[in-house]
Amino acid sequence: MEQRQQSVTKSRKEKEYGTQLREKQKVKREYGVRERQFRNMYELASKQKGVTGDNLLSMLERRLDNVVYRMGIGVTRREARQMVSHRHITVNGHPVNIASFKVSKGDVIAIKENKRNLEIYKELKDSKPVLPKWLQFDGKKLEGKVLELPSAEDLDFGVQVNLIIELYSK
What we know:
Elements: H1 2-31, H2 35-47, H3 52-61, H4 64-70, H5 77-85, E1 89-91, E2 94-95, E3 108-111, H6 119-122, E4 135-138, E5 143-146, H7 161-168
Antiparallel strand pairs: 1-2, 1-3, 3-5, 4-5
Helix pairs in contact: 1-7, 2-3, 3-7, 4-5
């Protein structure tokens, strides 16, 4: 009887771990972040004031490649990351080629002057992307602004952050 109880407890723990791992992998895949980057973000988020899960998601949302994607400049996060790494994007007038660059409130993200004539950016002038409330984008000027820092309510992507926090806090 005791052996049966141990196997039930063990399988329950394995299922719990598997669920937590799947949530973490889902978020990593969605944002295109590797394990070490994700772990480092978790460490920083846990040291900040407030809820660790909300801090982690806010840090992921504030990555430059994600902001470029959210503004509709890039169709996918991978395309947005490539635009950033090829120096097509400026932050406050300075070219930035680091996808993990964290934007702050008030930052102006724009397409570099000499890249605005490219075909992919010409199409943006007429488009009206659906933006989260913490971002603003002007298609005519091909620039956007971070109005405020993202909060947990701003995320449209269903994830159980508490499972990720439990996984890392073991």
